[in-house]
Design brief:
- The chain is built from 8 helices and 6 strands.
- The chain is an alpha/beta fold.
- It has a single domain, classed as Rossmann fold (3-Layer(aba) Sandwich).
- Strand 1, helix 2 and strand 2 form a beta-alpha-beta unit.
- The protein is globular.
- The relative contact order is 0.13.
């Protein structure tokens, strides 16, 4: 084991990663498994998460696939329950799943789109974190990592409501840190910039947006 892996050894730690069927989420799941964690790979489609879980297993890791829609609160409760049933607990939660159905000015966003963005990007992480918090507390602590966006700090005109949701996620992380820190539960947020994934394809294929990001 390398010095780096030894320092951040995750052997016997159980991690849930949402939005893990591709892109940043898949990379996070693979990275956690590489460092020894038992990883629950979650996203909307069972077939997609099974493919990622199988890939992790082929690389010598331990993974379990559970389909769950982050916008459906009952499915999130089931995700937490299935994780505990399969691995015995939860130590790490990575709230990575997100959605952005509207690319354009805020005046284009109707109520349905607004509610969908807030449900997946804010309410989902809130409810899933609450579902695993008692389990983490019983195990003496844990780590909640919310994947926000640079847009949550510095919004762009074409990503208005998405940016609002990501700003809310940053604030939610701070709330968790203050309320749950005494239980040994850490809460941290990561704010990536423009990453070339399928999720951000509408952005990185737009030359004007790329120039703004450079």
């Amino acid at each position: 084991m390398s010095h780096f892996k030894e320092k951040f050894d995750l052997t016997n730690k159980v991690a849930i990663v949402t939005g893990a069927s591709k892109g940043i989420g898949e990379a996070i799941a693979q990275g956690l498994a590489e460092f020894g964690a038992q990883v629950v790979v979650s996203s909307r489609k069972q077939e997609a998460v099974e493919q990622v879980a199988e890939k992790i297993k082929q690389q010598g890791g331990d993974a379990f696939a559970v389909a769950a829609h982050v916008g459906e609160m009952e499915q999130l409760k089931e995700l937490a329950a299935k994780t505990v049933e399969h691995y015995g607990g939860v130590d790490i939660l990575v709230n990575n799943a997100a959605t952005n159905p509207v690319f354009g000015p805020s005046m284009m966003v109707d109520e349905r789109a607004f509610d969908k963005v807030m449900s997946v990007n804010v309410k989902g992480p809130f409810e899933l974190s609450k579902a695993v918090q008692p389990v983490m507390r019983e195990r003496g602590g844990g780590s909640i990592i919310n994947i926000s966006s640079i847009g949550g700090i510095s919004p762009e005109p074409t990503l208005g409501i998405y940016s609002v949701s990501k700003a809310a996620l940053i604030s939610l992380t701070k709330v968790f840190a203050k309320e749950w820190g005494s239980c040994g539960i850490r809460a941290n947020v990561i704010c990536p910039g423009l990453v070339k994934t399928k999720f951000s394809q509408a952005l990185w294929q737009n030359e004007q947006v790329v120039k703004m990001a450079m």
